[in-house]
Design a protein that fits this description.
Protein Transport Mog1p, Chain A, about 200 residues
């Protein structure tokens, strides 16, 4: 009787172990939880720049001090770091009376945005006109691209500013989409509040 009982128990174990056909594998990667900062804005006004604008209080303004060939072309090249979101907005300013023409700078902005077409799923261009002498174009680039938002702002006579928003890590659109949707209104506020000083 004990032999029959042992065979019966072993058979039950074999049948129970055959229930799952899946092969064990590595678990999917988890993404860190993001703690979004409180939305509030402050006027960013510097003596270096011919303009002012509103930035989120959680953004850190810093003057750009390095370029590949040495000094930046203008002292009003700056970055806005969003450390808590692992992202940055890089801005470069050009005086149209000394240096490149507006057509060259606009072509450069379209060329730089176009370099993302290799990985982009879609690119949308929106005209900017904030009613205070500031016009430009906003490029929204969808897909696994390094810079999902780019823009330029100009008065078409004296000033030209180009901005590029970057994540400071490898881009995975599924994980960066919530951060991008959180920060997009901040970029819109910057453009809407942008004013030339002269």
């Amino acid at each position: 009787m004990t032999n029959k009982l042992i065979i019966l128990v072993l058979t039950a174990f074999v049948i129970a172990s055959c229930g799952d056909d899946s092969t064990p594998g590595p678990r999917p990667r988890m993404y860190p939880r993001i703690f979004y900062p409180v939305k509030s804005y402050q006027l960013q006004d510097t003596s270096l720049c011919a303009f002012n604008f509103k930035v989120p209080a959680y953004g850190h303004f810093s003057q750009d001090s390095f370029r590949f060939e040495g000094e930046p072309e203008h002292p009003c090249w700056f970055d806005i770091k969003f450390d808590s979101l692992n992202a940055s907005l890089y801005c470069s300013y050009y005086n149209l009376k000394s240096g490149k023409s507006i057509s060259e700078l606009v072509n450069d902005a379209f060329t730089i945005a176009g370099k993302h077409n290799i990985k982009a799923n879609y690119r949308k261009e929106s005209v900017i006109n904030n009613g205070h002498g500031v016009v430009g174009v906003l490029f929204e680039i969808e897909g696994p691209v390094a810079s999902p938002l780019q823009f330029y702002l100009t008065d078409e006579k004296n000033h030209f500013l180009r901005g590029s928003f970057y994540f400071d890590s490898k881009v995975n659109p599924d994980s960066t989409a919530p951060v991008l949707s959180f920060i997009r209104p901040d970029i819109d506020t910057l453009m809407a509040s942008f004013r030339w000083k002269n």
